[in-house]
Write a structure and sequence with these properties.
four-stranded antiparallel beta sheet, 2 helices, DUF2550, transmembrane helix, DUF2550 domain-containing protein, membrane
């Protein structure tokens, strides 16, 4: 019987450690300069589920991490010169509770289409970041 107790304690410690590391990772990512919450999904399936994530501006690229992961590396990296916005649609008007409006932003990266779910303010930042590209690459925003 004592062996079962030690196994149960070890499992409990392991689960607690994973939860603490995951929460710490999420807090660190969300508090980085230039980060914003950003859901992502493949285009073409309006009923498809969103993968919650946190995006961050880096030099010439956006790095996107899944919220529920322990990976120290971003799940996606989109370089500015290969990313384009092909459409944008409001998801809902401003909520009476004061929450900011959200946009469905359709994007294309290296011929692959995907969608982002971001706030109006975050879309403004994304559009500005894309428009700030070097001369000759200002056609990236719709």
């Amino acid at each position: 019987m004592p062996g079962v107790v030690w196994v149960a304690i070890a499992v409990l410690v392991a689960v607690t450690l994973v939860l603490v590391v995951g929460a710490s990772r999420l807090r660190t990512l969300s508090h980085r300069l230039g980060s914003f919450p950003c859901g992502a999904r493949a285009s073409g399936n309006p009923q498809g589920s969103w993968t919650l994530g946190i995006a961050q501006y880096a030099v010439g690229r956006i790095e996107w991490w899944r919220c529920w992961s322990l990976s120290p590396r971003p799940a996606r990296t989109w370089y500015r010169d290969r990313l384009e916005v092909t459409g944008r649609f409001p998801l809902a008007a401003e909520d009476p509770a004061g929450q900011e409006a959200r946009f469905l932003v359709q994007c294309r990266y290296d011929g692959m289409d995907f969608e982002l779910n971001i706030s109006a303010g975050d879309y403004t930042g994304l559009a500005s970041w894309l428009e700030a590209a070097p001369p000759g690459r200002r056609d990236l925003v719709l």
